[in-house]
Amino acid sequence: MPLLPHLPPRPLDSHKGDFGRALLIGGARGMAGAISLSGMSCLRSGAGLVKLAVPECILDTVASFEPAYMTVPLACDSAGCLFAHARDQLKPLLTDATCLAIGPGLSRSHELTQLVNELYTSVTQPMVIDADGLNSLAESANGLANPAGPRILTPHPGEFARLAKTPAGQKPSRTEQIATAQQLAAKHRIIIVLKGHHTIITDGTNTAENTTGNPGMATGGTGDVLTGIITALVCQKLSPFAAAVLGSHVHGLAGDLAAAKFGQVSLIASDLIYFLPFAFHSLTGEP
Predict the structure, then answer these.
(1) Helices 240-262 and 269-284, interaxial angle, to 10°?
(2) What tens digit of pLDDT does each residue of 121-178 get?
(3) Which of 157, 233, 260, 214 is CA-nearest to residue 4?
(4) Euclidean distance between the first and final Cα of the chain, in Å?
(5) DSSP 22
């Protein structure tokens, strides 16, 4: 892997506004933990201000995980999923956001597909898209076309197969998956983080392979942690590609530190958040 991107030292007169305003959109009844993991990892990865926009019915649960992020209630249906017209409530939040993330715990519906597609094709700020945000793009008639700004997609192989419209039953090799990711990234001017053993990050022109991480990270919620990390790094003025490369490395490194402490079998996603400070510290060497 080429030389890792790095965050610059923080000036002595820094204030929270210097390190970006993250807006994370997601959650549904029964999946409040996913967006909360993203929010907590975003904070631990250095974003100055972190705001979680979630269905009103789960706001208290999401807020209870971490007092350092803010929460905003959005309209939801009887199933606890966001309405498409939640976009009207999002408009004032979008104005101040440095970087957005959407997808963790979002759930799936026709209205959510509309919402994700509208944000994908209208929001000019960088956006990280994961989980059901990716599934919504896969279901959209326009697919990955017409991004209004920088887009970082973080699919696991199953989500990537849906995005790439891989025929059911067909199992492309890892080499074929990487080639397809490079083609899609180049065609749509997006960045794809193809998660897995040795995660691949590509913008269609540049491709990097991440070598940190371990099988203990194959557990629910670790992808939500990665979403928060990358969002925070973009907030701190790293380019989207650099943020995806460094974020993948730090995510895996935190997982390796967690596995060394707890073992791979017992590793859970929140362990990564605990070890993020140690992962960043090992890279910066700051006192």
Answers:
(1) 110
(2) 999 999 999 999 999 999 988 889 999 999 999 999 999 999 999 887 788 888 999 9
(3) 233
(4) 27
(5) E
